[in-house]
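ARCHIVE RECORD
Type: protein–small molecule complex
Small molecule: glutathione
Source of inputs: curated submission
Record status: active
Notes field left blank by submitter.
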Amino acid sequence: MIKVLGRRNSSSVQLVMWTIAELGLKYDREDYGHGHASTRTGDYLKMNPMGRVPVLIDGDLCLFESAAILRYLAARYGSDEFWPADPARRAPLDTWAEWGKGTFTEAVLEVFVYDVRLSPDTRDPAILRDATARLIPLAAMLDQRIGDGPWLDGERFTFADIACGHILHRYHSLNWSRPALANLGQYYDRLQTRPAYRDHAMVSYEDLRGSY
Ligand SMILES: N[C@@H](CCC(=O)N[C@@H](CS)C(=O)NCC(=O)O)C(=O)O
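STRUCTURE (tokenized, with ligand):
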């Protein structure tokens, strides 16, 4: 059975857990990371030398980096719809998956750090202004790419939706000046109709308040 090491309120863990649930895989998850079991022990660092969450163990395979884990799970257990075997069909989706987990998520996490991780007395509003200025054009790109959807690959829900969508709960629930982007809002509404998204990507981050 697949084992995941990592706390539920980590966005990188959420990406992996949502994937596992969409693929209907059996799993066991143990809480590691901030406020839970240490990721700094020798044994843990052998699994993930960065001392971060998540780690995924599947038989003899032990992986870190959530985007690589998503691709592994999709390639090994996903259908041709979820992870197209044809590189020419998969690569354009992978472009958005890379952008979603990297560029877009990093920009959302800047707002997250400001709004949640920093305690109010250490917040400099200029940081939020800069983070917002970086995030809004990226959100507009995703809004345009989604169009009428319903998913990034039209009627097909794929791994790219997980890479881009896992961070949209934070994007929509953080306290910041969100632009009105109809396609993105409707995409988030559609994501919330998926039980796996509700169970694994819409996790409270209240325990992380003021933790920096
Ligand atoms: N690029 C890595 C990022 C991993 C990462 O930064 N994880 C954070 C949580 S999202 C973490 O481990 N924080 C420290 C902790 O929980 O102890 C991935 O996607 O797996």
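CURATOR ANNOTATION: The chain is about 55% helix and 10% strand.
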